[in-house]
Specification:
Layout: H1 6-12, E1 19-20, E2 28-29, E3 32-36, E4 47-52, E5 57-58, E6 61-64, E7 67-68, E8 71-78, E9 80-84, E10 90-92, E11 97-100, E12 106-110, E13 116-122, E14 125-126, E15 129-132, H2 138-142
Antiparallel strand pairs: 1-3, 2-5, 3-4, 4-13, 6-15, 7-14, 8-11, 8-13, 9-10, 9-12
């Protein structure tokens, strides 16, 4: 379901919007928000509710790991997009689960006409790191 009205979206964003994502704002087009579901530094499995304003998406990026690692997205409110480099985009709706293996260049974010939220789980692994790449161009995004 699509939500342009933030107050209506807040009713279905079960895990809460959280705070403006200032630490990673440089890697997002438009506004995103983070709500940690587990206190940072208290678990080997970080989990955040990530909320995207309409049209918001993150840059292409890669979750590196020498073993295991990657990221899991559990979509629960609004609608969004996920795309791996060289593949067709995937429409994200509540209940969609995306398993992103390490070393896969990808991006994710809201559709242009709705708020969107997913839980992001950083899968534990060895020698993990994130590499932020170029922004998703308006040309690519607006063609969806």
């Amino acid at each position: 379901m699509k939500y342009m009205d933030k107050a209506e979206f807040d009713k279905v964003n079960t895990f809460g919007t959280g705070e403006f994502n200032s630490a990673y704002a440089q890697y997002f087009i438009n506004d995103s928000y983070l709500n940690p579901l587990i206190a940072p530094g208290t678990s080997t499995v970080p989990m955040f509710n990530v909320t995207f304003a309409p049209g918001c998406r993150n840059n292409w990026h890669i979750h590196h790991a020498s073993k295991w690692g990657g990221q899991i997205l559990i979509c629960h409110a609004g609608e969004g997009w996920y795309q791996e480099e060289g593949k067709e985009p995937v429409s994200l709706t509540p209940g969609t689960v995306i398993n992103i293996p390490p070393e896969v260049k990808h991006w994710h974010g809201a559709k242009k006409n709705t708020w969107f939220a997913h839980i992001a789980i950083e899968a534990p692994g060895e020698n993990t790191s994130n590499e932020w790449c170029e922004p998703v161009t308006d040309e690519v995004y607006n063609a969806l």
